[in-house]
Amino acid sequence: MHQSFQIAIDGPVAAGKGTISRLLAQQLGFLYVDTGAMYRATALLALREGINLDDEDRVVALLEKSKLEMRNPLPPKETDGRLTTVILDGEDVSWAIRTQKCGDGSSKVAVLPKLRRVLVKKQQEIAASQNVVMEGRDITFRVLPDANLKIFLTASIEARAERRHTQYLSKGVNISIEEVIQEIKERDERDMQRDTDPLHIVPDAWVIDTSNLEIEEVVKLIAEKVDSLHQ
Question: What is the pTM of this model?
Answer without folding.
Answer: 0.88
